[in-house]
Amino acid sequence: MPIVDDARAETIRYHESYYSRHNLFDQDSWLKAPDQYLLALAERQAPLWRELTGGTEARPLKVVDLGAGVGRNAIPLACFLKENSIPALIDCLDLLPLSIDKLGQYAEKYGVSQYINGIVQDNDEFQPTTQYDLIIAISTLEHCSSKASLQALLQRLEKALAPQGHLIVEITTDRQVRAVEDNSLVETLVETPLEKSEVEALFRATLSPLQLVLEENFPYQEKIDLNGRKVFWSSCQTSKIFRKNA
Ligand SMILES: C[S@@+](CC[C@H](N)C(=O)[O-])C[C@H]1O[C@@H](n2cnc3c(N)ncnc32)[C@H](O)[C@@H]1O
Question: Which regions of the chain are under pLDDT 50?
Answer without folding.
Answer: none
